[in-house]
């Protein structure tokens, strides 16, 4: 595949492509984009915003400060602002031909060229050898990805002498920094490596440097074991799922698509968009499928909460996928919600299609998304019910470890409804670009809390994390999909994990089931643990909202609090109260975003319900205070946690009216619990349902009567 892609790549073909600009905005389409600005509202709006940024940059003196600050600090933010301003001004020069914009980019680049080689390693470097302009090499790569686009826009304006100075005194040293000094990162199969090879490869194309392009595509050894193509092969599944998780798929999609577009512009015959059966097009759709209807990405693995598809990376992704890859008209719905397009060839195509009335609602679907380069490393199950206005959505993480950004959360559950998180995931313990909080980097609690199993909605055994918190061990294994299907009134996903705990088989099945006449679907959860030994099982449900009903005996710790344990995240959980259910099932109701959620669960006299809050053992206040109830059960042999969560009712604080506060699920029984099958009974207001799960029968895995 790599040999085919590189066929015909020579200095002659590279030189023959030297028309500038040549990446997002191309010389042949500049006039069409200029005309489109006057015709298509979304492009016009985006142009006005871009011009505002460029004009603001012109009114500010150029400053190229000595690098000294970590993420979020003054020098960090200034260098970041500089590449953004250069790109804005470069684009404005092409679209207005006003020399002042090009001169700004020229003067900025010449100032960088004059001082770059005098800078030492960054004083707050995050790794060795680390960044030079920024605290980590990654940010240097991002700077170059944006800056080379600006350079491309003013290439002809600069003249030969200035181009030589900029390329010799700035770009050549930067390329050396990225591909040689930080060669380990450059050759890494990781999002840092992706930004690095995109920076070097795009620079190579624009500057006519085949040697840089070759390294970017094939790695520094030129053997294809590293570089852009190896990353496409290894970081994505056949379904376009990025192994580090949705948050990092959002972040990495920009360099993947931007470098791919650059390759397409210079070598269209190589058909990079068709690589691995159109992988990058699939990756854009998969990224969007990994969001909820409030636009937020599912915060699996290391993730900052509330990151939406309105981010710049997804604007690039949507515009390129629609204009270049033939993606469907439902992407136009996303572009309309983003409320902007790139002022470019791709943005022109999107804005025109929207103006022509071609937009269709984005199609969220129940789906099993495979993980792993071969598609055999588990995956993500997404169950959805309802329209895009606030559907019920259950997310089931049965994927691989996710490399260094992965968490120990096999068979984890997230649940959304009514445009809100109901059962939530903590994400990463980090204050991004807040320099006073560990320089904007991950805090130590990301390791001791955020990644630990207790911080997730999945089973903890003997108060230890999966794989004992060993990333290398976690990378060796992945869960196994047992079943995924949809029916007329249900969707179901089931997976099994055999290696997270020695001698214990974990199996979880989630069902989104709509009973007859119900206003909202039920989330049915069957989590089985099988072992020949006795173990302590803890199943947390991290919830958003406030408990309004827990009709069983609860002993609260009202005068003092203590941590739940002393390791694997337990040291970071305050024990607020402990409950005991006397009957066969328990009930907990939560009020969240004006709606009630009642979880009915099967319990025996040995079960304890622990009410906990995160934040213990945290003297620097790095952990958010979030709440969970934990079903805690000692058991041996085959044991199943069975629960049903029902959305219901409404609380209107303005009108001071509450309706439907009583759940329609009246009872829950476990009729059969064996290795081969589970059978449970749900007493609903209008009907009693029996659900049977036959783990050995794919054709009739689930029956509901």
Description of the structure:
The protein has 705 residues and is of the alpha+beta class. Helices cover 34% and strands 24% of the residues. It is built from 18 helices and 23 strands. Strands 6, 7, 8, 9, 10, 11, 12, 13, 14, 15, 16 and 17 form a twelve-stranded antiparallel sheet that branches. Strands 1-2-3-4-5 form a five-stranded antiparallel sheet, with no helix packed on it. Strands 20-21-22-23 form a four-stranded antiparallel sheet, with no helix packed on it. The radius of gyration is 27 Å and the shape is elongated.
Question: Layout of helices and strands, plus pairs?
Answer:
Blueprint: H1 2-6, H2 11-16, H3 30-39, H4 41-58, H5 74-96, H6 99-115, H7 137-181, H8 183-186, H9 191-207, H10 210-218, H11 228-235, H12 246-266, H13 275-289, H14 312-325, H15 331-338, H16 345-355, E1 367-370, E2 379-385, E3 392-398, E4 412-417, E5 420-423, H17 445-450, E6 460-461, H18 471-475, E7 480-486, E8 490-497, E9 505-513, E10 522-543, E11 546-549, E12 553-556, E13 573-580, E14 585-592, E15 595-602, E16 608-614, E17 627-648, E18 650-652, E19 657-659, E20 665-673, E21 677-684, E22 688-694, E23 702-704
Antiparallel strand pairs: 1-2, 2-3, 3-4, 4-5, 6-10, 7-8, 8-9, 9-10, 10-17, 11-14, 12-13, 13-16, 14-15, 15-17, 16-17, 18-19, 20-21, 21-22, 22-23
Helix pairs in contact: 3-4, 3-16, 4-5, 5-6, 5-7, 6-7, 7-9, 9-10, 9-12, 12-13, 12-14, 13-14, 14-15, 14-16
């Amino acid at each position: 595949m790599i040999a085919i892609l590189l066929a015909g790549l020579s200095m002659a073909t590279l030189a023959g492509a030297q028309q500038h600009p040549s990446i997002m905005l191309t010389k042949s389409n500049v006039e069409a984009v200029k005309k489109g600005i006057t015709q298509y509202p979304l492009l016009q709006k985006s142009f006005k915003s871009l011009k505002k940024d460029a004009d603001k940059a012109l009114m500010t003196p150029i400053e190229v400060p000595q690098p000294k600050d970590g993420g979020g600090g003054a020098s960090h933010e200034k260098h970041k602002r500089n590449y953004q301003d250069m790109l804005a001004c470069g684009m404005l020069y092409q679209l207005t031909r006003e020399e002042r914009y090009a001169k700004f980019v020229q003067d900025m680049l010449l100032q960088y060229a004059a001082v770059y080689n005098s800078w030492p390693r960054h004083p707050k470097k995050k790794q060795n050898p680390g960044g030079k302009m920024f605290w980590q090499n990654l940010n240097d790569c991002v700077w170059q990805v944006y800056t080379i686009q600006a350079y491309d826009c003013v290439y002809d304006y600069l003249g030969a002498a200035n181009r030589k100075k900029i390329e010799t005194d700035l770009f050549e040293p930067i390329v050396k920094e990225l591909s040689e000094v930080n060669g380990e990162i450059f050759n890494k199969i990781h999002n840092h490596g992706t930004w690095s090879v995109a920076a070097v490869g795009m620079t190579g194309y624009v500057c006519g440097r085949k040697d840089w392009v070759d390294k970017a595509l094939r790695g520094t050894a030129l053997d294809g074991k590293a570089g852009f193509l190896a990353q496409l092969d290894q970081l994505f599944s056949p379904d376009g799922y990025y192994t580090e998780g949705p948050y990092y798929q959002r972040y990495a999609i920009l360099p993947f698509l931007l470098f791919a577009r650059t390759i397409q512009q210079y070598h269209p015959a190589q058909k990079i968009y068709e690589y691995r059966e159109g992988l990058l097009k699939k990756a854009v759709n998969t990224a969007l499928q990994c969001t909820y209807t409030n636009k937020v990405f599912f915060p699996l693995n290391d993730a900052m909460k509330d990151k939406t598809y309105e981010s710049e990376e997804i604007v690039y992704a949507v515009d390129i996928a629609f204009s270049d890859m033939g993606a469907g008209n439902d992407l136009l719905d996303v572009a309309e919600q983003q409320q902007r397009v790139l002022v470019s060839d791709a943005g022109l195509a999107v804005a025109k299609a929207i103006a022509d009335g071609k937009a269709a609602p984005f199609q969220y679907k129940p789906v099993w998304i495979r993980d792993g380069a071969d598609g055999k490393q588990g995956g993500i199950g997404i169950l959805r019910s309802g329209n895009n206005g606030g559907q019920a959505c259950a997310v089931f993480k049965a994927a691989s470890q996710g490399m260094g950004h992965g968490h120990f959360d096999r068979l984890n559950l997230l649940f959304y409804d009514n445009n809100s998180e109901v059962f939530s995931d903590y994400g990463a313990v980090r204050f991004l670009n807040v320099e006073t909080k560990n320089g904007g980097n991950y805090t130590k609690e990301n390791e001791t809390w955020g990644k630990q199993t207790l911080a997730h909605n999945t089973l903890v055994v003997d108060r230890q994390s999966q794989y004992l918190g060993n990333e290398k061990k976690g990378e060796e294994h992945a869960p196994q999909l047992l079943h995924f299907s949809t029916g007329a009134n249900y969707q179901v996903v089931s997976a099994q994990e055999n290696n997270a705990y020695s001698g214990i088989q974990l199996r979880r099945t989630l069902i989104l089931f709509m009973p007859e006449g119900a206003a909202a679907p039920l989330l049915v959860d069957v989590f089985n643990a099988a072992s020949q030994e006795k173990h302590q099982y803890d199943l947390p449900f991290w919830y958003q909202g406030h408990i309004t009903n827990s009709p069983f005996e609860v002993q609260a710790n009202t005068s003092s609090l203590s941590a739940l344990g002393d390791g694997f995240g337990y040291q970071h959980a305050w024990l607020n109260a402990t409950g005991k259910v006397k009957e066969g099932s328990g009930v907990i109701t939560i009020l969240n975003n004006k709606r009630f959620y009642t979880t009915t669960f099967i319990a025996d006299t040995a079960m304890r319900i622990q009410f906990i809050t995160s934040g213990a053992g945290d003297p620097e206040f790095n952990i958010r205070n979030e709440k969970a109830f934990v079903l805690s059960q000692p058991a041996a042999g085959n044991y199943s946690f069975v629960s049903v969560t029902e959305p219901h009712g409404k609380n209107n604080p303005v009108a001071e009216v509450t309706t439907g506060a009583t759940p329609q699920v009246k009872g829950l029984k476990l009729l059969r619990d064996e290795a081969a099958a589970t059978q449970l009974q749900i007493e609903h207001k209008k009907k009693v349902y029996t659900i049977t799960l036959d783990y050995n029968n794919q054709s009739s895995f689930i029956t509901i009567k």
